Automatic annotation (TrEMBL):
One of its GO terms (molecular function) is 2 iron, 2 sulfur cluster binding. Keywords: 2Fe-2S, Iron, Iron-sulfur, Metal-binding. Its cofactor is [2Fe-2S] cluster. InterPro entries: 2Fe-2S_ferredoxin-like_sf, 2Fe-2S_ferredoxin-type, Adrenodoxin-like, Beta-grasp_dom_sf. Belongs to the adrenodoxin/putidaredoxin family. The keyword Iron-sulfur applies. One of its GO terms (biological process) is P450-containing electron transport chain. The keyword Metal-binding applies. The lineage of its organism: Bacteria, Pseudomonadati, Pseudomonadota, Alphaproteobacteria, Hyphomicrobiales. This is 2Fe-2S ferredoxin. Residues 2-105 form the 2Fe-2S ferredoxin-type domain. PROSITE patterns: 2FE2S_FER_2. It comes from the Bacteria.
Length: 106
């Protein structure tokens, strides 16, 4: 079990619990986080679960796959810390991770 902090465009924080092995996208959808739409349900076919991972945790995560990196090229407002939340599995390393939802998704 870990905790994730979602931050919206106004800077409001929402802290939620996540089970190990659950995707960050599933955590966001289950928790009603605005801006994580997840239209493809985690099939790596859209980009509506795009988020920014706080620098403190970014290097602790596995690198994006080639497919994820390709999809990120097509999202609005991509940054160096852009990830698709459907591709991030929760575990002990992700405990306390801060996740910012892009302005364009609100």
């Amino acid at each position: 079990m870990s905790e994730v902090v979602f931050v919206d465009s106004a800077g409001r924080e929402t802290r939620v619990s996540a089970e190990d092995g659950e995707t960050l996208m599933a955590v966001a959808v289950r928790s009603g986080i605005d801006g994580i739409v997840a239209q493809c349900g985690g099939a790596l076919a859209c980009g509506t679960c795009h988020c920014y991972i706080d620098e403190a945790h970014l290097d602790l995560l596995p690198l994006p796959s080639e497919e994820e990196a390709d999809m990120i090229e097509f999202v609005m407002e991509p940054k160096a810390n852009s990830r698709l939340s459907c591709q991030i599995l929760m575990n002990g390393v992700t405990d306390g991770m801060r996740v910012v939802i892009p302005d364009s998704q609100h």
